[in-house]
Amino acid sequence: MARVVVEVMPKAEILDPQGQAIVGALGRLGFDGVGEVRQGKRFELEVDDSVDDVALERIAAELLANTVIETYSVRRVADAPAS
Amino acid sequence: MARVVVEVMPKAEILDPQGQAIVGALGRLGFDGVGEVRQGKRFELEVDDSVDDVALERIAAELLANTVIETYSVRRVADAPAS
């Protein structure tokens, strides 16, 4: 088994209303100095060793990301989840 | 300005129906060998240099993550968005 992280973010030229809402909320909560926020997704996959990089690319591009409006990155990581 | 990445993931003991739905979809699409998927969020923030690590921790814990069911990590990164 291997652990794979796929990160999906809205493309730079795509409006991100979720991120804009967070910027607004930060201001109302008194947190100053945050100029921009963009919100994306993070997936952690546990895959068999039979799953190669080509398959991971297809999984990311065809299922996890909408490549019209999002970019993605795929990387294999050591077995250490976000803490 | 500095770029900060905040990653938010469901805690290990919390059921993740979105991730389970992805596992099911992968099977139907013919991708075998993926045992578990967990879906979280990824935020990219552009912050002024006046925003210190204590403020970033508060932003993550009070606004971006629901710490009852989610864990989060905060890190400053070089100016390189996910590609």
Automatic annotation (TrEMBL), chains A, B:
Pathway: Purine metabolism; IMP biosynthesis via de novo pathway; 5-amino-1-(5-phospho-D-ribosyl)imidazole from N(2)-formyl-N(1)-(5-phospho-D-ribosyl)glycinamide: step 1/2. It catalyses: N(2)-formyl-N(1)-(5-phospho-beta-D-ribosyl)glycinamide + L-glutamine + ATP + H2O = 2-formamido-N(1)-(5-O-phospho-beta-D-ribosyl)acetamidine + L-glutamate + ADP + phosphate + H(+). Keywords: ATP-binding, Cytoplasm, Ligase, Nucleotide-binding, Purine biosynthesis. It is found in: Cytoplasm. One of its GO terms (molecular function) is phosphoribosylformylglycinamidine synthase activity. One of its GO terms (cellular component) is cytoplasm. Transmembrane segments: none annotated. Pfam families: PurS. The keyword Cytoplasm applies. GO terms for biological process: 'de novo' IMP biosynthetic process. It comes from the Bacteria. Its EC number is 6.3.5.3. It is an enzyme of class 6 (ligase). Belongs to the PurS family. Part of the FGAM synthase complex composed of 1 PurL, 1 PurQ and 2 PurS subunits. Part of the phosphoribosylformylglycinamidine synthase complex involved in the purines biosynthetic pathway. Catalyzes the ATP-dependent conversion of formylglycinamide ribonucleotide (FGAR) and glutamine to yield formylglycinamidine ribonucleotide (FGAM) and glutamate. The FGAM synthase complex is composed of three subunits. PurQ produces an ammonia molecule by converting glutamine to glutamate. PurL transfers the ammonia molecule to FGAR to form FGAM in an ATP-dependent manner. This is Phosphoribosylformylglycinamidine synthase subunit PurS.
